[in-house]
Amino acid sequence: MLKMLIVDDDQKFIQDIYDSFEFKDMSIYPVPPAKNSKEAFDKLKEFEPDICLLEINSFFDNSLELIEAAKQAELDTLFIITTGSEKFESARRAVELGVFDYLVKPIGMRALKDSVLKAKLHIKFAKDREEEYKAIKNVLNNNLKLLKKEFVKSWLSASLTDKEIRMYLSMYGLDMPDKCQLVLMRTFKNFLPQDSAFANDSDLLQFSIQNVVEELLIGYGNYILEEIDDDIVLIGPASTDWSTLRQVIETNIQKYLEHTIRTFMEPTDTLYDLPFSYSKAKHKAYNESSHYHIINNIKGYLEQHYTDSTLRLNDIAVHLKMSTGYISRIFKQEMSMSITDYLIKLRINKSIQYLWDPKLKVYEIASIVGYNSQHYYCEAFKKIMGASPTEFRKQRIANHASGSVQ
Treating both helix axes as pointing N-terminal to C-terminal, what angle do 63-72 and 37-47 enclose, rounded to 10 degrees? Predict the structure, then answer.
């Protein structure tokens, strides 16, 4: 329902309109009327009416200023002015200011209704056009985003010439200098612990990380930020203090999303060489923060603590500052065995070197490698090696004595 404001110092004129005009049938809601320009401007700001019926006469000598003030305030109100024949020239000037229509008093209800109907049609057309414009703009923006992403992927894969790179940067309005910095953000979005807020929606995590980064980049000028192969790639001028910015990004993502990412930076002297910087950053990411790094940390911790019979999965998780579910899943995926099975194999392999010492009893060796029970040690040993520790010891000693090697 549209809203209409009547501005007139003639209360009888206003009352006649209220009595005769078919507001309900025309789906028009009349907001409280105003009797002067100051009061009218306050009501324009308060109610934001779609239509304003405004009188221009000698008493209302600042009506044109009211229209100008409404335009400056970016109000979308359509003005229909009413005037006596002696003020016709003022009405013409008002029309030049963008007034929608004018009516000469005395005004018949038919003429007023026709003018309001025209205003309604104009408003509907304008709104429809705005919706169409928004829809077209959204389509263009979405396509532009996809095209821009494809450009960045082609660029990073070394599929473009220097001329093509500069052409696309110009097309997307990106004034990027030759000396740039590439920042690769490894988000681990596909390997979230079960207790993560994003465990069931990794794409939401990626989207949230990008939003946080975009907020932090406000004021940094031109930059490129795209999701590439589950990572987020940021490209910007080398003149930026990237060391500080990287720390700010990591800290804020941890603070607001309670998620840890790793960032890897590589500079480039020319736009054409950026793919090489990307390749270096990916290599760093793999060696320092990928599953390879996590697995090595787990193995290193087990190597140092396998002799501890009280060692638990939670001890490893606390040490790595990760959840037990997360490290268990990553380890099983990469090693094709559980952490527990790996620890058992580690302990059994370590125990073999002690079996060469005939002075050490089996129960002593079991204790050395982290078993409280000789029974469990022997059971695990036989399962892995196919013989009991005693049988294995005898066989190895016999083989050694005969000169055979196994």
Answer: 30
Helix pair 109-156, 11-20: axis angle to 10 deg:
80
Rounded to the nearest 5 percent, the helix, strand and coil shares of the chain are 60, 15, 30
Q: Model-level pTM?
A: 0.45
Q: Given 3.30.420.360, 1.10.760.10, 1.10.3720.10, 1.10.10.60, which CATH number is that of 292-402?
A: 1.10.10.60
Selection from 50, 33, 55 nearest residue 106 by Cα = 55
State yes or no: cis peptide before 193, omega within 30 of 0.
Answer: no
Sign (positive or negative) of CA dihedral 306, 310, 313, 316:
negative
Q: What is the pLDDT of residue 406?
A: 46
Half-sphere exposure (CA, 13 Å, Cβ side) for 214? 10
Which run of H or E residues covers position 265? strand 262-268
Work out whether the CA dihedral 172, 178, 181, 182 comes out positive or negative.
positive
Contact 83, 56 (CB under 8 A): yes
- The CA distance from 64 to 99, in Å, is 10
More confident residue, 329 or 287: 329
Residues 6+ apart with CB under 8 A from 26: 113, 116, 117, 120
End-to-end CA distance of the chain: 91
| pLDDT tens digits, one per residue of 362-384 | 999 999 999 999 999 999 999 98
Bridge partners of 234, per DSSP, are 183, 225
Classified by CATH at the fold level, domain 162-287 comes out as Alpha-Beta Plaits (3.30.70)
- CATH of segment(s) 2-127: 3.40.50.2300
Torsion of CA 136, 139, 141, 143, to 10 degrees: -140
Sign of the alpha-carbon torsion through 374, 377, 382, 385? negative
- Note the pLDDT tens digit of each residue in 38-47: 889 899 999 9
